Amino acid sequence: MEKGSGERYAKSLEATIQNNYHYLKEKVKDFQEMCLLVTPERKHIPPEIILDIREMYKEIRSRLTEIKAIEQLLQGKYRQFYRRDPLRAKEVLEFGFIAKNCYSKFEFTMIQREAQKAARERETALRGEMRGIPSHWFHSKENQATFIRNLRILDQLDYERPADPKIGERREISEDRPRSLTLFVISGDPGLIDALQSRIQLREHDVLERYTREELRGLLTHLREIDPLEVESKFKALIERLGYSKLKCLLIPVHSSKDLKAELLSLIKAGLQGLREGEFKTLSV
């Protein structure tokens, strides 16, 4: 290639770099502002904004790649006709950094939003499956929320590490065995209920509520596989040891939200009414 034609070609390449530079100077600012519109808290983001951000980022990356390729060509084959602009080169690098940083935050926010959406859908589905059982099992809104949360994230719950290693052994968690909940009702003379309530010691994630003067209701959270009859025998041993053998107790094991059927409350009511004084029973659901 002759000197004249080589110089003209180098100038055309330089002009392409300059055009891309001006494009980036304008568009990166717009891109940055558009990315700021996408936040985890915003309820609705128009799909066209998300599409525009992704398309704009592709174009910015394409322009940056083109600038880099042309500069390599000019610094190589046409270096005699090329005078590098260090200030422009610095700005181009900054454009690339800003665009990449904004896009990374945008994609992370999109992942957060998807996770939040999935969590909301799971909770909505769970509430639908339970058909109001938690809202009837406890009076306290806090206890109702704990009931829903424990069932929803049963496989994620853990115990805080206790100071006493012996307690740690009793709270050992097995990841490969099914976890579960146990609902329980203890009914009887209000004086005995008063005395028992003051002496029951709960573990982390368990719930106890004085539902009526004659009734205690609770929720046990089991982070390892446990036989319902074992739970029943422990309840019976505790109540007999404390001398409250006239109380009656009904236990309901729950392994998933599918166990919380609409008719469960009526089954519990009938089961409790059918118990004799001092009787313990595990209700199969």
Describe the structure.
The protein is an alpha+beta fold. The chain has nine helices and five strands; from the N terminus they run ααααααβαββαβαβ. Strand 4, helix 9 and strand 5 form a beta-alpha-beta unit. Helix 1 runs parallel beside helix 3. The radius of gyration is 34 Å and the shape is rod-shaped.
Q: Any idea what the radius of gyration is?
A: 34 Å
Percentage of residues assigned to helices: 55-70%
Please report the distance between the alpha carbons of the first and last residues. Answer: 88 Å
The largest beta-sheet arranges its strands as 2-3-1-4-5
The total count of helices amounts to 9
In total, the number of strands is: 5
H and E order: HHHHHHEHEEHEHE
Which stretches are poorly predicted, pLDDT < 50 over at least 5 residues? 162-174
Structural class: alpha+beta
How large is the share of residues in beta strands?
A: 5-15%
Mean pLDDT: 85
Shape: rod-shaped
What descriptors fit this protein?
single chain; 285 residues; alpha+beta; 5-stranded mixed beta sheet; 5 strands; 58% helix; rod-shaped
Layout of helices and strands, plus pairs?
Blueprint lengths: L2 H33 L11 H30 L9 H45 L2 H5 L3 H12 L12 H6 L9 E8 L2 H10 L7 E6 L2 E8 L5 H14 L6 E7 L9 H10 L6 E3 L3
Helix pairs in contact: 1-2, 1-3, 2-3
Task: State the gist of this model.
The chain is of the alpha+beta class. It has helices at 3-35, 47-76, 86-130, 133-137, 141-152, 165-170, 190-199, 228-241, 264-273; strands at residues 180-187, 207-212, 215-222, 248-254, 280-282.
